[in-house]
Amino acid sequence: MALDNESLDQLIKGVRRFVKERLVPLEAQVAETDEVPSEIIREMGEMGLFGMSVPEQYGGLGLNAEEEMAIAFEMGQTSPAFRSKIGTNVGIGSQGIVLDGTEEQKEKYLPKIASGEIIASFALTEPDAGSDAGAQKTTAIRDGDSYILNGTKRFITNAPEAGLFTVFARTDPQSKGTKGVSAFLVESGVPGLSLGKNDVKMGQRGAHTCDVIFDDCRVPASALLGGVEGQGFKTAMKTLDRGRLHIAAVCTGIAERLIRDSLAYAMERKQFGRPIAEFQLIQDMLAQSRTEAYAARCMVMETAKKRDAGENVSTEASCCKLFCTEMVGRVADRAVQIYGGAGYVAEYGIERFYRDVRLFRLYEGTSEIQKLVIARNMIRGAS
Amino acid sequence: MKILVPLKRVCDPDNANKVKVSGDGKAVTSEGLEWKPNPFDEYAVEAALRLNENAAKNEKLGEIVVCSIGVADVAQTIRQALAMGADRGILVTADDGALESTVVARALKALVEKEKPDLVLMGKQTVDGDSNAVGQMLAEMLGWPMATFVASISTSDGGKSLNVKREVDMGVVTLKVTTPAVVTVDLRIVSPEAVKNGATPDSHKYNEGPRYASLKGIMQAKKKKIDQLELPALGSDATPATTYPRFELPPARSGSCTFVESVDALVDKLKNQAKAF
């Protein structure tokens, strides 16, 4: 059920205050230590941020897309590492269960996902299956009441902290492409599941990824998501839909933060006896960034409303993901330019955002994949 | 323990520079201002929550009623306290312009007689008027014990009395007050170990500052009850004891910032230019 305006406004203000008072002051520390403090993760759990998209009956907030995006705009106003901690529980780590899980699976996992007691991770990408997600090599072979998993998953967000993985594996080893892929709910710590070293990344320090390796990892048949084989790829694609909109909203939030910081700096910094904000070439950059961020906010909200109205927004979600992730890259680049030398040194944190936002064009579907989705949907719709 | 927390909304102190005075100087205009709970009152809500819970077991131990006097929109400010965990609210509607400390204290006295709380816990002052008067007036009107500028509270005698510490210029004053009482709180009441209630383990450390309302708390606040009544219905004397004939904005500051090359240059400027010593 949609919230009334006052409650949504309070929700947004509550998150805004938390971001401003608790998260922003820790940005440099998180980047330096590569760790979000455990007390912050606990506080995010107490606030209910892990359960935004989990239905109320399973202990979550059951926010609709418009409400979730309004919160994602706010969570975007700080280092993406913080958002990443809740990101998989809100998005790809929980939505497979919400959409296609059995009642038993929902009752078992969703309340703990909503509270943040367990971190849920989404294991689709493999060394040879990135954009070509259908090229899954991981197998899950039925053996009596169990399945035996073998294979390696790569760049798995939050895997080092995860308590539960949604793992995609081929239950029919003879199958090719997307058919024959099933999804499994695998708890961490089971024999045969191991983790690689944390990846050393270009940015987003504090958010962790690593390989997840299955070596004759035996899971009960009840771990099959939805209890049906061969539905995994469909589940994965449905899950990514709302996730793409969420990423677009986060990018919009970051762009707004960078614009605010750039504007403040430009009004403060003086050259040739005047604040640089008075120079038209600086104004050009500010105006371009502002316009693009505004367009981004509008398209995200419009798409969220359509989704809440029950429309299929596959094309629009990809449009949002494509535009907003590319947009924040341009805004971050202009922010470095406005800051000048200060934008290039670590102390001001602008170069950190510049590195952080580069990831958004890559994960949950690269920009190139978004273009394919959009164009193919256009052609399908016209033929 | 039943605790009554009077709460006032104030314009966002971070945006206080947007405050304007009407053309005739008779009023402060509030158009376009964002409203927030008075920070000291928010600390009082937090202190009340700490007094009335077992934080280790997540159990509630008593009722917290939040009340406010003002225009109908003030219900939103009350709901913010309900989202933090207070149980119900009372809104006394009145025109902001007709309120001043005495009127507010008399209205609170009427509410206290109606609600019969064990404790009135409130901010030491509001950050808009800075009068620092209502708590003291209320205690006097009720004939109750009072402790002001309280920085820590611990319960004793099974909650029948409170040991409070007040930070004053020369040190810390410790008082013991028997309930029912009026206690006004200072900033440090929301430090991690400022409130001890005998139920939450003494080793428990709260986060610094008032708690953030959980998103679920915000969603549930709408379902909590806020009784609404008009000021005359309380039966308290609503005749102001003070009036505000005129408001003026402070003159614009002409200060500027100069960078100096060395400590010696700074000392020289402080001594000879600013005549600081």
| Oligomeric state, counting identical vs distinct chains | heterodimer
Cα distance spanning the termini of chain B = 54 Å
Major β-sheet of chain B, in short? 10 strands, mixed
Can you say what the CATH homologous superfamily of chain B is? HUPs
Number of separate helices of chain A: 13
**Unreliably modeled segments of chain A:** none
- How many structural domains does the protein architecture of chain A include? 3
Give the C-alpha Rg of chain A.
21 Å
CA radius of gyration of chain B is: 21 Å
What is the second-level CATH architecture of the largest domain in chain A? Up-down Bundle
pLDDT averaged over residues of chain B: 92
Q: What is the H/E order of chain B?
A: EEEEEHEEEHEHEHEEEEEHEHH
For the largest interface, the chains and their residue counts are: A-B, 21 and 15 residues
Overall description:
The complex is a heterodimer of chains A (383) and B (277). In chain A, α8 runs antiparallel to α9. Chain A has 383 residues and is of the alpha+beta class. In chain A, β8 and β9 form a beta hairpin. Chain A folds into three domains: 111 residues, Butyryl-Coa Dehydrogenase, subunit A, domain 1; 111 residues, Butyryl-CoA Dehydrogenase, subunit A, domain 2 (Beta Barrel); 149 residues, Butyryl-CoA Dehydrogenase, subunit A, domain 3. In chain A, the strands form three sheets. A four-stranded antiparallel beta sheet of chain A has the order 2-3-7-6, with no helix packed on it. In chain A, strands 1-4-5 form a three-stranded mixed beta sheet. Chain A has a two-stranded antiparallel ribbon with strand order 8-9. Chain A is built from 13 helices and nine strands. By secondary structure, chain B is α/β, with parallel strands linked by helices. Chain B has a single domain, classed as 3-Layer(aba) Sandwich (Rossmann fold), CATH 3.40.50.620. Helix content of chain B is 25%, strand content 27%. Chain B contains seven helices and 16 strands. In chain B, strands 1, 8, 9, 10, 11, 12, 13, 14, 15 and 16 form a ten-stranded mixed beta sheet that branches. In chain B, strands 2-5 form a two-stranded antiparallel ribbon. In chain B, strands 3-4 form a two-stranded antiparallel ribbon. In chain B, β12 and β13 form a beta hairpin. In chain B, α2 crosses α5. Chain B is globular, with a radius of gyration of 21 Å. Chain B starts with a strand and ends with a helix. The model of chain B has no long low-confidence stretch (mean pLDDT 92). The interface between A and B is medium-sized, with 21 and 15 residues.
